Structure of O-antigen ligase-related domain-containing protein:
Amino acid sequence: MKQWLVNKIGFIIIICTTIFGIVLYEPLAINLIDEITLLILFCFYFIISLTHNGSIGKGLFVFLVVFLFYFFYSLVINVTVPAAVLADFLQQAKPYLAFFSFYYLGVSFSKKQGQILRFTVLTLFSVLVIASMLGVLDLFFGHPTTFATCCFSLSILYYTFNHSKKSDLLISIIILSLGLLSGRSKFYGIFIIASFVLLFVRHRIVLSFRTLIISLFVFVVVVIAAWSKLNLYVVEGFSSDWIARPVLYKNAVNVLNDYFPFGSGFGTYGNEASRDFYSPLYYKYDLYKVWGLSPSYDKFVADTFFPVLSQFGYIGIMLFVVFWYRLWKLVDYKSLAEKIVEYKIGLIIIAFFLIESIADTTIVSHRGLLPMMILGYVLSPKRASQLTAEID
């Protein structure tokens, strides 16, 4: 199949995900738009791989083997109902399928497509600015966190395809800064790190005394910016048994030890499936008594990501760390190849998911798809250059 078709399909997927999967996701109430978009993307990649190469990529193959193992393991161990296992299997797979599809497709966008993306982002940003001035952001986003991650996605998308001028960098930061209106402490941290990387990182970061001092300074600034929530959930939270999020973290150790080494399986802990099909683990560990985790009020059951990893056991956590370590090495390779823009984008997206996963499930939600697609795009070994000559 010709590369120009791959490029156009990839372009359409990016545009649709940006408009309908992020900005207009809640106003249009198309709750399955991210699943539909991802299904089309993955099927397209799968067909191309089998017809053109006769096989799928090694990384994707390993991912499918691991996830299918955990799927059948979850059915056999029978901690929760099969419907919960299937629902969580599909949700947890989304970010990886988004990444691997773009990583192996090797999509390249033409100059015209880059201009269209620029126009799209600036238009959506203008709409959000007007909506914030009129005080009607609630029409687009039901929660400030959703608004903040939307601003991040628009900013990183803009910079990915528009970075040749200094003004492009400034525009990216301006778009990102709009998310500060969300008042989310973790976004303050994301904004500080992203702005620092965009403005000051000009080459590969190497371990040195200077790097350690700068990293410590940035870390302290991030902690100060997010101190109110850190104090609530970490300092005070872990000494109490009534705040849902710290309770999920503390009890994750019990899940790891009681279901050694592969965990309790899909749909059993800290995710939407475990809430919708109320997991037996919440009764086993008396979490049903905690405000926000009870069957009558379950708002905070799926409110953080890292505790979810306990359902995959110590082996699953190890595999998760290996996956992100491999991505880090790919990002680091970009700096060695003097592709500093891709290096910056990779650093920012990894930092974004690291911070978001502490207190949100962004990575497995509709808000996590676009950053994972962009990460796959910039790290793709098949993409010869960012903007190619347009082929009609």
Confidence is low (pLDDT under 50) at residues 384-392. The CA atoms of residues 6 and 305 lie 33 Å apart.
